[in-house]
Amino acid sequence: MLVPLSWLKDFVTIDIPVAQVDRLLTNAGLEVKTIDYFGIPGADLEWNRELVLLAHLLKVEQHPNADRLVLATVAYGNGRTKTVVTGAPNLFDYRGQGDISSSQIYSPLALEGSVLYDGHKEGLAKTKLKGRELRGIYNDAMLCSEKELGISEEHEGIILIQKDAHAPDYQAGTPLQDVLGDAVLEIDIIPNIARCASIVGVAREYAALTHQPIRYPDYSVKMEGEKVDGRIQLTTEEPELNPRFVGYIIEGVQQTASPYWMQHRLRLAGQRPINVVVDISNYVMLEMGQPNHTFDYDFLRQRADQYNPDGPIHINTRLPHDGETLTTLDGISHKLAPYSILVTDPQGNLSLGGVMGGADSEIKPETQNVFLEAAAWNFINIRRTSSKLGIHTDAAFRFSRGVHPSQALLGATRAADLLNKLAGGTVANGVIDTYPNPPEPVTVTLKLDYARRLSGLDLSGEEMAALLARLEFEAEVHDDHLIVTAPDHRMDIEGPHDLVEEICRMYGYDNIPSTVLSDVLPPQRGNAQLEQEERIKDTLVQAGLQELITFRLTSKAQEAKLIPQNHAAGPDGRPYVTLTNPLSAERADMRHSLLASVVEIAAHNSRFQNRLAMFEVGPVFIADEDEILPQEQTRLSVVLSGQRTVLGWQNGDAGSYDFFDLKGVLEALFNELHLNISYEPVDHPTYRPGRTARLLLGENQVGVMGELHPLVVEQFDVQLENSDQPVLAADIDLDALIAHIPSHYPYDPISAYPAVHEDIAVVVDKSIEATAVADIIRKSGGYLLKDVQLFDLYEGEQIGAGKKSLAYHLTFQSPDKTLTDKVVQKVRKKIVGQLKHRLQAQLRQ
Known about the structure:
25% of the residues lie in helices and 27% in strands. By secondary structure, the protein is an alpha+beta fold.
């Protein structure tokens, strides 16, 4: 939220540098993200206090030698006057009117030597003002536009400030720094400080931090019109969703431009001025944090003449009917969720409560009579509606964080008063106020010992009460506790811990003394699950992979991409854990699959990277019909694709990841964990047929690995360099792996005796797996056989149809002696015999 310092000063005295204001607010929990300076020291363009002044417009005359130029005579203090040549189009209407000083119009005047932005160039280009002739008349000064002063990009005319009874007391010759110069604080409004989503809210905090009272806005209004009795009837069918609805009728409103001081503040606060009616609505929302809305009263009356010709307008708040829609102010038609609260009359919808007005009842240029409303809404309901419909307005921002019903009357009164003073409207006599269920005040008992222990502060009850009183809490002091009543704007106060936080904030976190822990340290116990997860992550990073941390929220449609369309397996039919109030439709369900999250990130990165090697360790959430909470299962997902290595001067071909690269990564992991994992071909709809294996730990499947199905790759929109490039993936049950990781494992000493290396090639049926052959070789070789490696596969006519040749490299080594050929040949003969007996294998000559 943008907070102009000059606006803040309306409600509290600020006599310290801006940097100190920043530190004070940030240390109290209102983080100031940035500070933008306009015209004052610290700004990119600082207005010279001697050369850039406020001038009083005296008269405007036509330039004798140019139709599009005028001569504006201004006074700028101490009896000084100057005639300025200007082409500002918003001065043309004043030509030939003679002395217009009584109109009290002021404008920024820059004298020769001033540094300004060039209004005729793109961007912000500085220029130094020099005197020169303009069509025969010497000119050494300038009346300025907002762009030339760095306030905005507006350059259609100069700034004209009308002085009236409601404007500041402008004086000619005042340095412009003191009139329009400002510092704007950008404060990050996080949910627990929603009370500060207004100028008054920030001023209230600053006043409390600096031990001074706050000056609240004037909440009175002159009501000189007809009585409101019998003109509008307000009802609500959902008091829990709409606890209060307040309205004023204002007639004879003049839709002119709002005064410049209001426009200037709105621009600094990030709002675009429209007209006085709209600007007042936005101004009050920013000032007080209470959104409000104006309806065209005559439009409402015309509709009422159709359903109640002689009776009052009937405004009702209710939930939508099935299939009901609403066209909002932005012209978009929305199908309403069943929980969206509506403002309606018997003829139809008028607005979406707490979010945005309806197009039909909006203020039009010819509107003169308005119905001004300010209401309170259930903050959770507004948040759900705003997220569901994708409508994110300033009003929804505030209502979705909580605005107390007490603020509705204050906000409506403040807006009605400004419409009376600035728009010439006459406020009808009386306020329409529907308040069916006023909330009870929040009262909390705070034990003094609890507060001291939690805060680390040794304060008395009176001292704690005094700190809370600065924030408008009312506290009764008792011997060992306080009974504290929270002010109505503090909707975040729920228990004693909240009060302790407020005491610490007012005391100053920096002032809390450092203390040494006096209690005995609790015994330190390891977290075996977490330690093993970190070990697995470290191993995969050492293998060249990058760790991901993805959203645990996804959508059913996103996870359905793991199955090719129209596949017999179909999408995951298990029920999801679904958020009642998701931030977006794409993040509404707790994920069932970690792999879908990793492939989603891989697809995004494939647009920018030609090498993908990533993994994630994280939970999935499976709804359990018999339990309140879902089952959480920890998974490991790996994705590889693209270049195997980074290109360099030593390797001209980086190669591409294939099935065996993924298998190698997994084998490195399993070796580190001392787990004996076997691989077995399997069919799986997510993976390409014939290029998929399941991972077995004993007889139990713990995961699947292989090449993703081309249709799955297409559905996730993974960008590939060519159609042959595979996307490799593995999805593993990490809980099952971790449960079998041995806590202890034996080590064999390195033998001091030489190893003997031999090769063996056997012919077996094509259906026999290479791992089955290797297992028999290992078991037959006994303790002398240290390693078995497959190095060749051959199929051809020389070995017969339906056969294949597998060649293995064998390493023999004894721990206590040098092996002789006789001993090795004896073991080799045993291996060949077992292969022949169990697999009908033949030794290939």
